[in-house]
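Handout, page 2. Input:
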Amino acid sequence: MATTDHVGTSRIAVASFIGTAIEFYDFYIYGTAAALVFGKVFFPTFSSTAGVLASLGTFAVGFLARPIGAALFGHWGDRVGRKSMLVVSLLVMGLSTVAVGLIPGFGSIGLWAPVLLTVLRFVQGIGLGGEWGGAVLMSTEYAPEGRRGLYSAFPQLGPAIGFILGNVFFIVLNAVMPAGAFLAYGWRIPFLFSAVLLVVGLYIRLKIAETPVFQAALDQTEQAKVPLFELLRSQPRALVLATLSFVLAHSLFYTVTTFCLSFGTSALGIPRMTLLVGLLIAAAVMGGATLVFAMRSDRWGRRRLSAGAAVAVVVWAFPLFLLLQTRNPVLLTLGLTGGLLCFAMLYGPMGAYLPELFRVRYRYSGASIAYSVSGVIGGGVVPLVSTALWSWTGSSTAVSVLLIGLGVVSFVSVLGLPETLGHDFSDGLAGDSAATVSDPAGG
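Output:
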């Protein structure tokens, strides 16, 4: 396999990382704003709980749009290449995020405010649907043999960096601005700052070349005319199991970062600054852990770590909320950190695991759709369900039970997938019959 030199590798690392960092920065600031201010800005006629539900509903719209973006970008990414689609996805994603920061509130334009918010959220989801798959393919298809886990860690660090950057913004704004000013215009600043990240990301991505794995496949074989159809015909089982396996990752991330923020401030009366600092510390630990677990997957195997993460979530589902309910800053930070460590254990190997499951002819489509559809359920539906369960029961117990159920589904699904460590990445697993591939890690 062709690889890059040292300079090229550095460029690939930054190019694959920058988009996912912007992706999670955009999604996190939206989720935080949805939990803290969107109910008052865009749904002021609703009750407090209904306003949070409505704003989280617009949050879910972005996830619903992701599979559409995955299908679109996956189709053209498998036909014309990874690089061009990464540039387009970044543009769509970044511009729509900046535009959210420019929408007038309900008090200025009435119902058009939530309508515009929902439309822009949908467009943002389209761009995001093609971003992650292209980014992990950019890194893994450049990786030397035996180091795909390490290289896949580049885009997988995006959640930690994007989360930290967005969190720092809200902490600083919360510290320096009166509550009224933050509600009036302060929340818009993080969205507008996304323009800076967009320019940097575009500059870097325009300077990268096509991945050697895709270029070799393009030179040697005929392209799939409709990659999605070939994917569904050849590897439907792998697609379904991969999707179910990683619903848990999205569910856990947004439960910890979005639902716990809303639950902690609204139900428990924890100061917003305390929770934001706790989440900032947890995200920093998560970033380091993501890198470690991604690297370990090159030795221990993707399947073993993914299954272990599902077990860890089952174990931590109740302690997460018990520690949060102590209202003690140290203990609640421990609870949040434990949750994001479980996420890192699953998310770290995922960057290499999903691309490895699919043939190069439709790899962009397969990885993007599995990631995006799992995001619809885990990132879009689960926060809504969690908020509704909390509203109906007045307790976090039902949310913990929900996480345990998702952990069991993930564990069973991962066991149905093959271990991909060490297989021929220049082509990929031949089909669903490849579930008998041996596990080099001994799992």
